[in-house]
Amino acid sequence: MARMRNANSVRKMKPIILVLCEGETEECYVEFLKRRYRLPIKIVSKVVGQKINERLVSRILNELKLNASERIDCFLMYDADVPAVVKNIQSCKNAIALFSRPCLEVWFLAHSDCVSGTDFTTSDCMRKLKNVPAWKDYRKGFLTAVQQELLWQNRHTAAKNISNSPSKQSTFSMVGDFIEKLESVGKQI
Question: What SS3 class is residue 141?
Fold first, then answer.
């Protein structure tokens, strides 16, 4: 005999997380986080590139929605090295900016070293990152198993090792805010 379901039971849908990102490195890192947190994260990369704007973000959000009540949290993961792109992203009202200055690799570096208050160029950051044993063979758009484990184990340390708000021209990364959001969503499910 088949069991009858309670007609009033309502399934709670997982919130969808949309991440629009600049390039291969950001895409690779978000894909890694997606697997680790086991959350419904949709990644849009490279197609958007530096041409990001409010209209494009709205179009992608509307394409993803199945119904009007569905909640989609949208994040824009970009390097803060191009002022025009930063300005475009800051004007996007329906998305949360996740900037890193000079590049996402500064967030990776923060998993091993304190970088608060320093001022790096992208090449300085890459050189310093490659001096860390786990990152000596690093190449953009690819994370080894050792690098992934370092990123996972030290994700909270990284947030302490780097500023999360832009001030003058010093390094910062807002990726720690994204990690907090993923952990919060993971607890709700």
Answer: coil
